[in-house]
Amino acid sequence: MLAKYVLVLENRSVCQNRWRKSQFFKKKLVHRCVKCDKELIHKYKAQAEWNMQGFLCSSCHIEMTKEFIARQQEEKRKLEISLHICAVCKKELLLESDRYKPRWQWNMERGITLCKGCYEIKSTEYERTLNYCVICETRLGFIRYNPKPKWNIQGQLCRKCWDKENHERH
Ligand SMILES: [Zn+2]
Ligand SMILES: [Zn+2]
Ligand SMILES: [Zn+2]
Q1: Does the residue 167 lie in any domain?
Q2: Which pTM was predicted?
Q3: At residue 46, does pLDDT exceed 70?
Protein backbone atom coordinates (compact mmCIF):
# COMPACT_ATOMS: atom_id res chain seq x y z
CA MET A 1 0.00 0.00 0.00
CA LEU A 2 2.74 2.34 1.01
CA ALA A 3 4.91 1.34 -1.95
CA LYS A 4 2.07 2.13 -4.35
CA TYR A 5 1.67 5.63 -2.86
CA VAL A 6 5.38 6.40 -3.25
CA LEU A 7 5.22 5.32 -6.85
CA VAL A 8 2.34 7.72 -7.56
CA LEU A 9 4.25 10.58 -5.94
CA GLU A 10 7.33 9.80 -8.00
CA ASN A 11 5.28 9.72 -11.18
CA ARG A 12 3.81 13.09 -10.37
CA SER A 13 7.21 14.70 -9.85
CA VAL A 14 8.45 13.26 -13.16
CA CYS A 15 5.40 14.74 -14.83
CA GLN A 16 6.00 18.13 -13.26
CA ASN A 17 9.60 18.15 -14.43
CA ARG A 18 8.52 17.36 -17.93
CA TRP A 19 5.92 20.09 -17.79
CA ARG A 20 8.49 22.64 -16.58
CA LYS A 21 10.89 21.60 -19.33
CA SER A 22 8.23 21.99 -21.97
CA GLN A 23 7.36 25.45 -20.62
CA PHE A 24 11.04 26.40 -20.75
CA PHE A 25 11.31 25.48 -24.41
CA LYS A 26 8.03 27.15 -25.18
CA LYS A 27 9.32 30.36 -23.65
CA LYS A 28 12.36 30.32 -25.89
CA LEU A 29 10.10 30.21 -28.92
CA VAL A 30 7.98 33.17 -27.86
CA HIS A 31 8.50 36.18 -30.11
CA ARG A 32 8.48 39.59 -28.61
CA CYS A 33 7.82 42.91 -30.26
CA VAL A 34 11.19 44.57 -30.88
CA LYS A 35 9.70 47.93 -30.00
CA CYS A 36 7.47 47.48 -26.95
CA ASP A 37 8.64 43.97 -25.91
CA LYS A 38 5.09 42.65 -25.83
CA GLU A 39 4.66 38.92 -26.42
CA LEU A 40 3.47 38.41 -29.93
CA ILE A 41 0.43 36.37 -30.86
CA HIS A 42 0.38 37.73 -34.38
CA LYS A 43 3.76 38.67 -35.75
CA TYR A 44 4.22 41.56 -38.15
CA LYS A 45 7.44 41.73 -40.05
CA ALA A 46 9.27 45.04 -40.05
CA GLN A 47 9.75 46.44 -43.55
CA ALA A 48 13.24 46.47 -44.97
CA GLU A 49 13.19 50.28 -45.26
CA TRP A 50 12.67 50.68 -41.50
CA ASN A 51 16.14 49.39 -40.64
CA MET A 52 14.82 46.99 -38.01
CA GLN A 53 15.38 43.34 -37.30
CA GLY A 54 12.64 41.07 -36.00
CA PHE A 55 8.91 41.28 -35.51
CA LEU A 56 6.44 43.85 -34.29
CA CYS A 57 3.04 43.74 -32.60
CA SER A 58 0.14 45.10 -34.60
CA SER A 59 -0.03 48.50 -32.88
CA CYS A 60 3.73 49.12 -33.22
CA HIS A 61 3.52 48.00 -36.83
CA ILE A 62 0.75 50.50 -37.52
CA GLU A 63 2.71 53.22 -35.71
CA MET A 64 5.88 52.47 -37.69
CA THR A 65 3.97 52.46 -40.96
CA LYS A 66 2.52 55.88 -40.13
CA GLU A 67 5.95 57.22 -39.13
CA PHE A 68 7.49 55.89 -42.31
CA ILE A 69 4.84 57.48 -44.52
CA ALA A 70 5.23 60.79 -42.67
CA ARG A 71 9.01 60.66 -43.15
CA GLN A 72 8.59 59.89 -46.84
CA GLN A 73 6.22 62.82 -47.26
CA GLU A 74 8.66 65.11 -45.48
CA GLU A 75 11.45 64.03 -47.82
CA LYS A 76 9.22 64.55 -50.82
CA ARG A 77 8.33 68.04 -49.56
CA LYS A 78 12.01 68.92 -49.11
CA LEU A 79 12.78 67.71 -52.61
CA GLU A 80 9.94 69.81 -53.99
CA ILE A 81 11.28 72.89 -52.22
CA SER A 82 14.75 72.28 -53.66
CA LEU A 83 13.15 72.14 -57.10
CA HIS A 84 11.49 75.44 -56.32
CA ILE A 85 14.69 77.33 -55.71
CA CYS A 86 16.31 79.34 -58.48
CA ALA A 87 19.35 77.33 -59.57
CA VAL A 88 21.38 80.51 -60.14
CA CYS A 89 20.58 83.00 -57.35
CA LYS A 90 19.01 80.45 -54.91
CA LYS A 91 15.91 82.57 -54.38
CA GLU A 92 12.90 80.62 -53.09
CA LEU A 93 10.14 80.50 -55.68
CA LEU A 94 6.92 80.13 -53.74
CA LEU A 95 4.50 80.86 -56.55
CA GLU A 96 4.05 78.62 -59.55
CA SER A 97 4.09 81.76 -61.73
CA ASP A 98 7.60 82.66 -60.43
CA ARG A 99 9.14 79.43 -61.71
CA TYR A 100 10.77 79.35 -65.11
CA LYS A 101 12.22 76.36 -66.90
CA PRO A 102 15.43 77.08 -68.82
CA ARG A 103 15.28 76.40 -72.55
CA TRP A 104 17.15 73.29 -73.64
CA GLN A 105 19.36 75.33 -75.98
CA TRP A 106 20.92 77.06 -72.98
CA ASN A 107 22.71 73.85 -72.02
CA MET A 108 21.77 74.01 -68.36
CA GLU A 109 21.24 71.11 -65.95
CA ARG A 110 17.99 69.23 -66.51
CA GLY A 111 15.07 69.68 -64.10
CA ILE A 112 16.26 72.96 -62.60
CA THR A 113 14.12 76.04 -62.07
CA LEU A 114 14.99 79.70 -62.54
CA CYS A 115 13.51 82.91 -61.21
CA LYS A 116 12.21 85.50 -63.68
CA GLY A 117 15.32 87.67 -63.38
CA CYS A 118 17.82 84.85 -63.97
CA TYR A 119 15.68 83.50 -66.80
CA GLU A 120 15.79 86.86 -68.54
CA ILE A 121 19.55 87.23 -68.02
CA LYS A 122 20.14 83.76 -69.50
CA SER A 123 17.78 84.48 -72.34
CA THR A 124 19.58 87.75 -73.20
CA GLU A 125 22.97 86.02 -72.93
CA TYR A 126 21.77 83.34 -75.29
CA GLU A 127 20.35 85.86 -77.75
CA ARG A 128 23.69 87.65 -77.68
CA THR A 129 25.64 84.49 -78.46
CA LEU A 130 23.15 83.84 -81.25
CA ASN A 131 23.20 87.26 -82.83
CA TYR A 132 26.53 88.84 -81.96
CA CYS A 133 30.12 87.95 -82.65
CA VAL A 134 31.57 86.72 -79.35
CA ILE A 135 34.87 88.55 -79.98
CA CYS A 136 34.10 91.98 -81.41
CA GLU A 137 30.39 92.01 -80.48
CA THR A 138 29.20 93.31 -83.81
CA ARG A 139 25.77 92.15 -84.77
CA LEU A 140 25.91 89.11 -87.00
CA GLY A 141 24.07 89.09 -90.26
CA PHE A 142 22.59 86.13 -91.98
CA ILE A 143 26.01 84.59 -92.57
CA ARG A 144 27.95 83.70 -89.43
CA TYR A 145 30.94 81.55 -88.70
CA ASN A 146 31.31 78.75 -86.22
CA PRO A 147 34.68 78.62 -84.45
CA LYS A 148 36.73 75.46 -84.91
CA PRO A 149 36.34 73.11 -81.90
CA LYS A 150 40.08 73.34 -81.04
CA TRP A 151 39.75 77.13 -80.59
CA ASN A 152 37.52 76.46 -77.56
CA ILE A 153 35.25 79.43 -78.22
CA GLN A 154 31.54 79.37 -77.30
CA GLY A 155 29.26 81.15 -79.73
CA GLN A 156 29.63 82.42 -83.26
CA LEU A 157 32.01 84.79 -85.01
CA CYS A 158 31.88 87.42 -87.69
CA ARG A 159 33.85 86.87 -90.88
CA LYS A 160 36.62 89.25 -89.81
CA CYS A 161 37.21 87.64 -86.40
CA TRP A 162 37.00 84.15 -87.81
CA ASP A 163 39.73 84.95 -90.37
CA LYS A 164 41.83 86.61 -87.66
CA GLU A 165 41.52 83.60 -85.30
CA ASN A 166 42.25 81.21 -88.12
CA HIS A 167 45.32 83.18 -89.12
CA GLU A 168 46.65 83.60 -85.56
CA ARG A 169 46.23 79.98 -84.61
CA HIS A 170 48.16 78.67 -87.56
ZN1 LIG B 1 4.86 46.51 -30.01
ZN1 LIG C 1 17.48 83.64 -59.83
ZN1 LIG D 1 33.87 89.75 -84.76
Answers
A1: yes
A2: 0.44
A3: yes
Ligand 3 centre from 151 Cα, in Å?
A: 15
Q: Is residue 91 part of a domain?
A: no
Q: Which of 28-37, 56-65, 126-135 has the highest mean pLDDT?
A: 56-65
Whether pLDDT at 20 is above 80: no
Q: Which amino acid is at 88?
A: V
CB atoms within 10 A of CB 30: 9
Residue 16 has a pLDDT of 62
CA–CA distance, 116 with 96 (Å, rounded to integer): 11
Among 44-53, 80-89, 131-140, the range of highest mean pLDDT = 131-140
Residue 118 has phi, psi (to 5 degrees) of -65, -35
* Residues whose beta carbons lie less than 5 angstroms from ion ligand 2: 86, 88-89, 115, 118
Residue-range definition of the domain harbouring residue 43: 34-81
Interval between CA 41 and ligand 1 midpoint (Å)? 11
Distances (CA, A) of 4 to 7, 8, 10, 11: 5, 6, 10, 11
3-state secondary structure of 114: strand
3-state secondary structure of 76: helix
From the CA of 44, the nearest ligand is: 1
